[in-house]
Amino acid sequence: MKKLLIHIAIIAALFFLFDRALGYGLGILYSQSNATDEYKISYSNETTRDPILFFGSSRCLHHFVPSIFEKELGKDCYNTADWGIKNIYYHYGLLGNILTRYTPQTIIFEIHPCDWLQTPFSGIERANSLAPYCGKSEACDEMLKLSGNYWKYQLSWTYRYTGSLPNLLTGKLGSMDRSLKGWKPMDGILDTTGIKAEEYPFPVDQERVHLLERFIKDCQSHGIQLIMVESPMYVCSQQDVFRFVHELTQKHQIPFLDHYRDSDFVGHAEYFFDFGHLNRQGAERYSKKIASELKEIID
Amino acid sequence: MERDNILAKVQEVFRDELEVEDLVLTDETTADDVEEWDSLSHVQLVVALEKAFGIKFTSREILSWDNVGDLVDCIAGKI
Amino acid sequence: MVVNSLAFLWFFLVVLVVYYLLAPKKVLQNFFLLVCSYWFYAQVDLKMTGLLALLTLIFWGIGHGIRIAIEQEKEQLASRLTTLSVVIGIGALFYFKYLNFFIGSFVAAADLIGLHLSWTASHIIVPIGLSFFTFKLMSYPLDIYHGKINHERNIFNFVNFIAFFPTILSGPIDRPKPFLKQLAQSRLFNPDNLMTGFRRVLWGMFMKMCIADRLDLYISAVWNNFEHHSAVSILFASLLYPFQMYADFSGYSEMAIGVSLMLGFKVAENFKRPFFTINIAQYWSRWHMSLTSWLTDYVFMPLNIKLRDWGTNGTIAAIMLNMTFIGMWHGADWTFFLFGIYHGLWYIPLMVSGQFFKKTKIQLNSYGLPTAPFAWRMAGNYLIVTFGLMLFHSTNINEFWAVLCRIPEAWNGGLFFDMPTLVNGAICSLALIYVDFQEEYFSKKKIYLPAWTERWRWELTVTVEILAILLFGIFDNNQFIYFQF
After folding, report:
1. C315: chain B residues, CB-CB within 8 Å
2. What is this structure's pTM?
3. Structural domain tally of chain A?
4. A194: closest CA of chain C, how far (Å)
5. CATH number of the domain encompassing residue A63
6. Distance (Å) from the alpha carbon of A137 to chain C's nearest alpha carbon
7. What is the DSSP secondary-structure string of C370-382?
8. Which domain holds residue A209?
9. How many CB atoms lie within 10 A of CB A299?
10. Which residues make Cβ contacts (< 8 Å) with residue C169, sequence separation at least 6?
11. Is C470 on the interface with A (CB under 8 A)?
């Protein structure tokens, strides 16, 4: 029995040593990788100091071209969005981490139904993308505790990088071009056969709504100008999908640029890469349009 | 037929069927002891034994043998 | 509650401590084990816990009856009781697993001749683990009838045998004799069992979480959207599938066997590196061994013996029936039926050529690896298995046919290559392949490592395995593949 306990103690010691060393090394690779997730999450959480930030899901990632906004608004911009249907659980933690480093002036939030509905395809597990930043801010840790992984990430630094080793090893060979300041252009045109509007037949998720409200309040209390946006789709739903957002933004006196049914884009296959994402031309045209609208709102 | 003769004849049948010339069987020998003797060759052995001794076993008898000794006893009971 | 979950970890830690504290008192230890097994099953399938207990009692009772009948030389009664037990076992399987399928097929056939029926049995839910514990249950009266074992007087031992929690859900399927024997004594605290068992659990977790669950991301992404994927992708995913299944099921078996060993029990092995085989007979002797040996002993052998006067034809018929049962055991659909027939058919050339009855020795070259002809035969065998598993994988015959038709249609198309998934999978798969080669061909050679590692070999291996699981394993839904089409 005693021998067994010694074995176990040795394992614990070896594990602590190897795990911290490996986790530390992986963390360094994480900041240097140009793979989409690794670059976007690390740069947004650790490095960016731009006064204007874009938040959102993959729709934001592919739609907003920082260089166009920088030209129009005369301020540095960074697009923090990542793909993988990131939702408010992720954004709230991300905001918390950013606020430990600096306070942006403006946040433009491309809102998605998964930020307030109980979408089965996107839930609390999205917060796990904040794993490398466990311990960085209260908000981030709160999200990780909700996802049930906080103590696991504290116990194992290696676990924070689970599944990402290939992307970490690709380093500079990843697909993101850092000069584009977070934007990921998509080249190609939508094949329109059989395209239907995306519907969201899901109930409202009070936890997510609550987090959205806290997100808004945190921005307001830090003096961050928050603007919500909704990008166009190729085909739109007949339902009033974004009524919730209109009510929410009215309640908190926040501008909401609703371009969901924007006729400049809806039905124009040449601007879309797929049913929900604009291609390079679409993103550039759309960014110019939004930039000129923002110019009226942002000081 | 004497029991020892039965065992000897059984051994001969096994040697022929399994193609192992120097195989030696005792009462305690089981399928685990002979590499070539598995569930597949078992049935071939049964058929060959039935032919050699001119007898017929029931399924129940065949499935009840644990070792060569059981087999020999079973044959002895039939001839 | 799956074995690779935190909930199970806590459960098992508590169980281990109390279990070994009770070790000197066999009766208490066995009773505690029984309580744990039933608690475990109740967590997994509360509604069917009563059914499990009821069936266990019935079979124990029948076993008792058969024993008494044999002692009193009442042959016919013994035979009838045995038949009754088989009928109950198969009846339970039929009702829960296959009734809905047969009704559905019957209704479909009736439809073809214009007769519209609204029969359905889709409300019937299969008790978890049914296919496994009914086989354990049925082997008991059959073994008593054939004089292989004595009736187990201690009903708690029998209940423990059937409900043993590490193996009740997905096997391996144990036989009464070896397991009941182990229950007859206490399992005393044995550090070697704990350490070896723990390593097997870790290895199983690695296989399941790092290889099987990872490759499944890719295979499902392609297979579930095969209408949008190229032939190359579909073929590649299909070729990965046997390997993924191996990692999945063998991984799960390793965990079950490891947990059992940590409790001091040696249970049946299930896999023995099945891809190092050159024909279908060899394959089945190494794949899901506890199932194939069960069916061999209780289905194939009796059939083969009954049909022995038909010579080779008799054996062929026995094999075809046996393989059909294997197919249908896996699921209630025509795909599984055809899967069984497909495998049965591959036995025929072996039997006709006489290869079936002889053990072919695989020749090794100077490197200790199989020579080219045998390597090719292994590759060919893998392809045979791959095609059968495409049937197995399909939800129904229509899907199988649709996938096959898609292949020539989508011939010109690139391979869908999700780099992170495939590279993660490749790294871990290579580790498994390396270990399997090591164990198959180089188990007698010693691996020479620096002396200091020798002292802490177990600790280092465990640490590395845990880190590998943490770095490469699939833990939640946050890992998925991006496929834009």
Report:
1. 40, 43
2. 0.91
3. 1
4. 12
5. 3.40.50.1110
6. 21
7. B-HHHHHHHHHHH
8. 37-152+173-297
9. 7
10. C44, C128, C129, C132
11. yes
Tokens coding C379 = 């590759």
Phi-psi region of C25 (alpha: psi -120 to 50; beta: other; left: phi over 0): beta
Top CATH class of B3-78 equals mainly alpha
Query: What is the C-alpha separation between C423 and C481, in angstroms, rounded?
Result: 13
Token representation of residue C329 = 């055991």
Q: Please tell me which of the candidates C148, C296, C308 has its beta carbon nearest to residue B47.
A: C308
Measured over the CA atoms of residue C228, residue C231, residue C232 and residue C233, the dihedral's sign is positive
Residue C172 preceded by cis peptide, ω within 30: yes
Q: Give me the mean pLDDT over the C351-356 stretch.
A: 80
CA distance C73 to chain B (A): 14
Give the separation between CA C228 and CA C410, rounded to whole angstroms: 9
Domain ranges of chain C: 6-189, 192-271+415-472, 280-382
Confidence at C289, pLDDT banded by 50, 70, 90: very high
Is A136 within a domain?
A: yes
Q: C356 at the B interface (CB within 8 A)? A: yes
B64 touching chain C per CB within 8 A: yes
The C-alpha of A191 sits at a distance from chain C's nearest C-alpha, in angstroms, of: 9
Tell me the helix, strand and coil percentages in chain C, rounded to 5.
Answer: 70, 0, 25
Is residue A56 one of the residues assigned to a domain?
yes
Res C447: pLDDT: 65
Helix (H) or strand (E) holding A258: strand A256-258
Is the distance from CB of A24 to CB of A114 less than 8 angstroms? no
Mean pLDDT of C176-180: 96
How far apart are alpha carbons C52 and C92 in whole angstroms?
A: 11
| Residue A110 Cα distances to A89, C294, C301, C462, angstroms | 14, 59, 67, 46
Which of B39, B59, B60 is closest, CB to CB, to C296?
A: B39
CA atoms of A149 and A156, how far apart (whole Å): 10
The answer as to whether A138 is a domain residue is: yes
For chain C, the average pLDDT equals 91
Which residues in chain C have their CB less than 8 angstroms from residue A162's CB? 470-473, 475, 479
Q: Which of C215, C228, C477 to mutate to test the interface with A (most CBs of A within 10 A)?
A: C477
Interface test with C, best of A59, A158, A162, A175 (most C CBs within 10 A): A162
Note whether residue A243 is domain-resident. Answer: yes
Q: What confidence score (pLDDT) does residue C482 get?
A: 63
* DSSP state letters, C297-354: IIIIHHHHHHTGGGTHHHHHHHHHHHHHHHHHHH-SSHHHHHHHHHHHHHHHHHHHTT
The answer to whether residue B63 neighbours chain C at the CB level (below 8 Å) is: yes
Helix (H) or strand (E) run with residue A218 in it: helix A206-221
Nearest CA to A69 out of A81, A47, A52, A56 is that of A52
193-222 in C: which are within 8 Å (CB) of A? Answer: 194-195, 214
Nearest to C194 among A4, A18, A170 (CB): A4
* DSSP bridge partners of A108: A54, A227
Tokens of C333: 């659909």
| Mean pLDDT value across residues C53-77 | 94
Q: Please tell me the distance from the alpha carbon of residue A97 to that of residue A82, in angstroms, as a whole number.
A: 16
CA–CA dist C66, B65 (Å, integer): 18
Residue A13, pLDDT above cutoff 90 = yes
Q: Does the beta-carbon distance from A15 to C194 stay under 8 Å? A: no
